[in-house]
Amino acid sequence: MKNRVWINLTMAILVAGLFFAVSCAKKTIVSDATAIEDQAKIEADKNAAKAKAEAQARANAQAREDADRIAQQELEDRIANEKALRQAKIMAAKKRFENQNIHFEYDSSQLSPMAKTVLKEKAAWLKANYSVSVTIEGHCDDRGTTEYNLSLGERRAAAAKAYLVNLGVSASRLNTVSYGEEQPEDFGKTEDAYRKNRRAHFAID
């Protein structure tokens, strides 16, 4: 009888121990699975954060590249505009030089105060553009003989040249020619037309 009791008691203890062991094993398996899931989530979060950081870095790099490109384009545009403006000023000054004549009194090659002012401007332009050579053309109105007007035109061109040389322009850059009455600026027969034709014109060679 006692043996049976001990056997039953032993069996109960073994069953309880086995149940406890199985229960602990289940808990261990569940804990391990949870730990694996947690680790996987941590890794996924890390990878997501890394991908986000890399994407942000690429976006920042692209933004800097775009900003640099825009800044470079703006710089190039500004340089081009400044160059165009300088070129326009150069062309305007050149056009003014060529289009601005000096005028003389009737039958005279003497330079007026106004003519000297214009010649000073031309001398400054010639000094700034030292590679330019100029032909000074002497012109007259149609009163007087052809021969006389050719001579008068030459004296007018020579007077303008001498004044420019006196202002520091090299004589080797200044040529002279007389057209006398052959190339009038105004074909009229009025005093105003005659005044326009009594001139020295400056042609860039």
Automatic annotation (TrEMBL):
CDD domains: OmpA_C-like
InterPro entries reported for this sequence: Bact_OuterMem_StrucFunc, OMP_bac, OmpA-like, OmpA-like_sf, Pal, Pal_lipo_C
Membrane topology of the entry: Lipid-anchor
Compartment(s) where it occurs, according to its Swiss-Prot or TrEMBL record: Cell outer membrane
Name of the protein in its database record: Peptidoglycan-associated lipoprotein
Leader sequence residues: none
UniProt keyword annotation of Membrane present: yes
Gene of this entry: pal
Organism for this UniProt entry: Desulfobacula toluolica (strain DSM 7467 / Tol2)
Family: Belongs to the Pal lipoprotein family.
One Gene Ontology term from the biological process aspect of the record: cell division
GO CC field: cell outer membrane
Keyword tags: Cell cycle, Cell division, Cell outer membrane, Lipoprotein, Membrane, Palmitate, Signal
Pfam family, one: OmpA
Predominant cellular place of this UniProt entry's protein: membrane
Top-level taxon of the source organism: Bacteria
Sequence ranges assigned to domain OmpA-like in this UniProt record: 91-205
Keyword Membrane in annotation: yes
